[in-house]
Design a protein that fits this description.
Layout (H helix, E strand, L loop, with lengths): L7 H26 L5 H25 L6 H6 L4 H5 L2 E2 L3 E2 H41 L5 H8 L9 E5 L6 E4 L5 E5 H6 L2 H18 L2 H12 L4 H26 L2 H10 L4 H7 L4 H25 L11 H16 L3
Parallel strand pairs: 3-5
Antiparallel strand pairs: 1-2, 4-5
């Protein structure tokens, strides 16, 4: 199996992992050094970690076909193979442990990202027939449209679903739609509901940006990379903050959006009592606590009087960070 590391596929896999680690360290250091807090700019920096390792190996090989030679490796900053062949307490090699991490990361990608996307698409396809069969309370759709008056809904369809649960999601494509449950309409005030729907409209607008779709395709190529997995989640968290800011721009009401997000927080005491004390149950509990923490972070940010005045970082900082990543990773083989 170690011979695989000397093939082009093996070198690509090994170097992309190490290049991701270098890119993450440099990008995080840059964000701290320049005190960058603007979610749009932070997301731009994190995209370096996701995109750069995908193209770095073939680009470097094109520039220098002899980059994988023994002579180049002797002068390199970091030789991947020398470290991967090390034995850990004489039981297994670092390469074996890396393979286990790669397999686990691929499984996480399938379970937490790919499968939920497929299920979401199926749910969206079923949503309209279910709405028609359930029978909405009279005037529910008209009431929702009155509440949302003032939002730019010209290019967005609205579907009201008969359900007591708090359900709010959007579908993109040529005919974008926002799906809203009657439970949301009963639970939230008109201002909160308007702010929550504005957040979904922001997602629809952002989905039309080709860059985001391209980045997700790149993420799928790097399905085996744990660092890409973590960075993509950070990109998704920044995306939520960006859409929060766009929703506030549409409504001019930060507090209503904060309260709307609070409504969506899970009841952790109830969930903790229901989750079983098994490995799967504990994993679910950790995921729910993580989700709740992200929602609390968004609420606190919106209630921060300086949350909408965060200092940004320009393209110069981004260019310097990207140049540092490209230069360092050239000598990581």
């Amino acid at each position: 199996m170690t011979d695989f590391l000397y093939t082009y596929a093996g070198m690509y896999l090994a170097q992309s992992l190490c290049h991701s680690a270098v890119a993450a360290a440099v990008a995080d250091s840059s964000l701290l050094a320049w005190r960058i807090m603007d979610p749009r700019v932070k997301q731009r920096f994190r995209l370096i970690v996701i995109v750069a390792p995908v193209v770095s190996f073939p680009l470097y090989q094109l520039i220098n076909p002899g980059r994988g030679s023994i002579q180049f490796r002797l002068d390199a900053l970091f030789d991947v193979n020398r470290w991967f062949f090390l034995e850990v307490f004489g039981f297994f090699s670092i390469w074996t442990a890396t393979l286990v991490i790669i397999v686990l990361t691929a499984l996480i990608f399938m379970i937490q990202e790919l499968i939920p996307i497929v299920l979401h698409l199926m749910e969206v396809r079923r949503a309209e027939p279910e709405e028609e069969a359930s029978g909405l309370p009279e005037g529910a759709h008209e009431k929702a449209m009155r509440i949302l008056e003032g939002l730019s809904m010209d290019f967005v369809g609205l579907h009201v679903l008969e359900d007591e649960e708090l359900i709010l999601f959007s579908s993109t494509g040529s005919a974008p739609e926002v799906f809203l449950s009657t439970g949301m309409m009963e639970e939230m005030s008109p201002a909160e509901l308007k702010a929550a729907v504005a957040h979904e409209i922001a997602h629809i607008r952002r989905s039309k940006t080709p860059l985001l779709m391209t980045v997700y395709l790149v993420r799928m190529v790097m399905f085996f990379n744990p660092i890409t997995l973590m960075e993509f989640r950070k990109v998704a968290q920044e995306e939520e903050k960006i859409c929060d800011d766009m929703a506030v721009e549409m409504t001019g009401d930060r507090e209503s959006l904060a309260r709307a997000v609070e409504h969506m927080r899970p009841d952790m005491d109830e969930l903790d009592s229901e989750v079983s004390d098994t490995l799967a149950g504990r994993s679910t509990a950790v995921e729910l606590h993580s989700h709740d923490m992200q929602l609390r972070t968004r609420v606190n940010r919106m209630r921060d009087p300086f949350g909408h005045m965060e200092p940004g970082g320009g393209w110069l900082q981004f260019a310097l960070t990207l140049a540092a990543v490209v230069a360092v990773n050239y000598f990581v083989v």
